[in-house]
Specification:
By secondary structure, the chain is of the alpha/beta class. The protein has 10 helices and 12 strands. The strands form 2 sheets. It has a 7-stranded mixed beta sheet with strand order 3-2-4-5-1-6-7, sandwiched between helices. The chain has a 5-stranded antiparallel beta sheet with strand order 8-9-10-12-11, with helices on one face.
Amino acid sequence: MNGPGPTGPAVDARDDQDVLVHRALMYGSRNEYLLTAVPYLRAGRRAGDAVVVVVEPPVAAALRGRLGRETTADIEFLDPAMWSRGPMHALAACHDRARADWWPRGRLRMLAEPVWRGRTPLETREWKRHDALLNVVFAGTPTMIMCAYDTALLPDHVLAAAARTHPELAMPDGPVPAERYTPPAEFCAECDAGPLPPPPAGAARRSFATGGLPGLRDFLFTGAARYRLPEERTLPFVLAVNEVATGIIRDGGGRGSLWVWAEAGELVCDVTDPVRVLADRFLGYAPPGAKGHDPAMWAVRRLCHIVETRSGRHGTQVRMRVRIG
């Protein structure tokens, strides 16, 4: 995109179209960040967008100071800690808010900065996937999202992934196409490459088939109590596993097996279908109403911290994780 600088029309040339605009802002200093972020937010306020900022408090303070009280009065600031339950929770919560509060007011214009510190390797991978999935979940909606990345602090692998999951890169003189952008299905396939580690030798195992779901639920409640899963997380855990098992009985091979164990502060459950092969890279990530949407897996992903799937000639494996602590 060519044209005037950040306050000119080049920044928002597609403002009147229901086409997702998803950009990565790579910055090396606070001033460099503000140079691009502030005009982006001001343009949204002038356009009457629902302007939402999801950044940590020190960054929010810097933005408020540069924008001024009159401008920030119409901007909704959210602490990223509220999205910290997991990448799928953040994705679903953002979509829920957009549908209920932001899109009815016009277009959503969001500035967000994910929190990467303190993440496990698995969480880091899933947050990278989250960036790719934004292109799927918000496609065809009146949405602009700018995700910020501190090049002075973040590891190279996070920055490399950002360059591949955002179609555009935000620059002070206007956005440019991301040369390394990778289609979401291809990126998600890379995230799912390779088998999952097998359950540990001490994992509790149970088979199930038609008519066996009540006993399976009892087994899960017992396992949750054994590993001291908090009461408020036990029912969501049982519901998630029961939903996957129900799908196997109804649509898969009619029978399956599961293993339950605890590791690294999480209760983990593997459910396997020895027959069915799944081809959908976005299974359970598409929101309600989307073409090909699977409401059951959408619910399962929201009930868990992280859900991993593998599918191939040996059937399908679904690994669900819920935090114990």
